[in-house]
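Pilot study result, target chain (296 residues):
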Amino acid sequence: MEAILKHRGRTISEDEVAFIRKLIAEHPAASRRALSRKLCEAWEWRQPNGALREMVCRGLMLKLHRLGLIELPPVRHVNPNPLSRRATERQRPVLALVDTTPLCAPLGEIRPLKFRQVRHSWEEPLFNSLIERYHYLGYTHPVGEHLKYLIYALNRPIACLAWSSAPRHLGPRDRFIGWSAEARRQNIGFIAYNTRFLILPFVLVPHLASHILSRMARVLSDDWQRIYAHPVYFLETFIDPERFRGTSYRAANWIYLGLTTGRGKADQTKKPNRPIKEVLGYPLSRRFRDLLSERR
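Predicted structure:
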């Protein structure tokens, strides 16, 4: 059986894609949610606690749909999302045409990669379009300091990364750094938050994601200095463990710092109101704790 792609550690074969097509055909009235549940049950795809891995399964089906390998029914319901509502207040990115021919090759055959910081450039609309079309969170307009990167190989875009100002209060990170509240207030701008990381779904190159993260860590601070007149000393991101394992980050030596509270920065109830995320960090300097704790 020929492998089509890998998703969350599972190799998807042509026969399995054919099975999904048959499942969709046999349940023409089923929603995407119902189809993902049926597929999880058929494959016995479960979490360690026994619950069906429905979100992971929906992510697989959406990826196959975007690759044109299956045809999902139209979306019936979109959960309310304040970030999405805020984004729709602005003009949505115009979807750009890109080469969707599957790129399946060893990493060595597509190097060297080209990293382009595209904010305020003619390539920024392309970046926005790719995030809107292929990232599961879609595109939202950043606020504060932020940079956008397109990564090219063989003269075609293969990945996108977005970086922005870091959240002001983040318990696992703050405990890891060990800074005071005043140092955090003064120095929070020296941390960059990875808001989006997208490998285009038709790019199937082993070890590509961790390689990009490693390369990114070597160029980001200099670009931040050039554009905002100050460096960054520490990188951070959130991982939704229901969707991702963070394997590429860990392979690039990012450090697990802990879990979010699931409450959000504007919470007044002190009760979880959103998914709990893993917090990962990456120091850009051996002296990051001293640099981030300095009084200015």
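One observation from the pilot: The chain has two domains: 3-66, 82-293. A full batch analysis is planned for the follow-on phase.
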